[in-house]
Amino acid sequence: MTTRVRSSTIALRRVLENSSLLTFASLLVVSVAMQRYSGALVWAGALLVFFAHACGGRVVPPVPGRPPKTFARRMDALRAVGLVICAIGVALSF
How far is CA 42 from CA 37, 86, 87, in A? Predict the structure, then answer.
């Protein structure tokens, strides 16, 4: 794979990640505006899961002395919190 193809693939991936974050944020705002709080919980959880994925792929661990495993565990914890919030929103909608 050439460098140009690789950089365009990375750029496309970032555009798709950003668009998914904007989509979930917009759906969260619409749900809150319509007073559909269970739906807002679902979209907030999805936003956290996608944010953790997008952030984990871009950000270097904040403290150079800290091993990358600590950063990966934090991103996994953020994903888990997002899934729990989604589950609560789904449970409240029934």
Answer: 9, 4, 7
Instruction: Output the average pLDDT for the chain.
Output: 85
Rg (Cα) of the chain, in Å, rounded?
16
**Structural domain total, the chain:** 1
SS3 of the chain: helix, strand, coil, percent, to 5: 85, 0, 15
- Per-residue model confidence as pLDDT tens digits over 7-30: 888 888 888 888 988 999 999 999
**Cβ pair 93, 42 in contact under 8 A:** yes
Global pTM reads 0.77
- What is the residue range of 56's domain? 3-93
Cβ-based neighbours of 56, under 8 Å, separated by 6 or more: 71, 72, 75
Residue 62 makes CB contacts below 8 A (sequence gap 6+) with 71
DSSP summary character for residue 69: H
DSSP 8: H
